[in-house]
Amino acid sequence: MIVVDVNTIAYLWIPGEMTKFAERALEKDPYWVTTFLWRSEFRNILAGYLRRGDLNSSSVACCHNGAESQLAGHEYLIPSPLVIKKVTDSTCSAYDCEYVALAEDLNTMLVTSDKQILDQFPELTIDLKDFAGTT
Question: Contact, 24 vs 132, CB < 8 A?
Answer without folding.
Answer: yes
